[in-house]
Predict the 3D structure of the following.
Amino acid sequence: MRIAGAQIPVGPNIQSNKREILKALDWAKQNRVDHLLTPEGALSGYCDGWQEKDEEISSALKEIEQCQRGVGLHLGVLTKEKESIGLIHRNQIRHYDKSSKLNTITRKTYCISQDRCLGRLNDDPVRYFELESGVWAIGMICNDMWGAAEELGIAFCERHLVDRGLSVIFHATNGMKWNKNDKRNDVFSSYSEGFLRMTAFKSQSNLITVDSCVPWNWNGDESLINESITSSPSGVLNFMGWQTNVPRQGRQYFYCDIELNTAQEYKNYDGRMSDEYPYVKLLR
């Protein structure tokens, strides 16, 4: 299966965001991509103001759905969702299959104040879904990967990903960006990359993660595209590590042809490892 990501600029301008997504879809079709992931809030933007643009977001979403056929699209958007209790602000990944049918919706679990959204409630089940027959996947949004460890003490990975037989985890994020010369990049990058690698290792699945390449309030100035470092790496990884090498600045489209039996490969690898601590013999 060929999975891909679009590390694209995401700002408050809905029409600009829509054009970026449509260009990414064109690239995906040209490169025979099966499934394409966008950053968190790729259509709506991730900042104040999207709440008053409901009609514009809905119209842009319909246009994207009409152009998406042929590629499975996993689209990040903040939007109003009609529920039994009324219209609720949600931070979502909308998972479309290749026929443009909406397969399922991932709701962000660990929302923060900037989301201006209601997080997934305990009685709302985690939504596992089939990419294709027998190929199971799940979506995670930003802090669902790393925020849980800080806020609740129980990582999302431990509760929902381990021993589930997942083939793909789709992680859409849009974290706070630092200037490329800011020394804080190192600690935040190490923190996020550690979570990504351990999640891929523990879940024994393929993990694709995508961030936006600009700050939340990007004004459309192309000269600023390469001034920020993504808040976390974009790319594809499994229990053996990164399978891609995606630059941390600017627009980047990438794909990776993945094996769907990663869990079995992990078992084969694990079975070759010695149960004995490697330095025991040196101590005897």
